[in-house]
Design brief:
By secondary structure, the chain is mainly α. It contains 4 helices and no strands.
Length: 115
Amino acid sequence: ITKRNNGGSPRYMAPELFDCKTKITEKVDIWALACIFIETFGGGLPYESITTLADLTRELLVHRRAPILPQHLLEPLKCVIRGCHNFDHRLRPSSKQVFDQLREGKRRLRQEGLL
């Protein structure tokens, strides 16, 4: 799937990039970062079963479904990704907040003997 008019990889694009009514902010990168986390930690390509831009747009804007999280992810990482995939861009964390959440999750997992 490609989007020609403004570039980018639609599978990683935040919902507001498909809606011309919303102001674009740095929070679109937070959405994409969460998509990359999913792949990095063993998940599939975001929306891998979707083959057309129209279907992807419907999935994001009508059904409001975020990419699927791998079942094996530990809860702290799932929480970070869920926050980054908030459909209200104003409620997504900043990059500093994502970093802090990851650091805190790592600390908790070490404390619980899971790392």
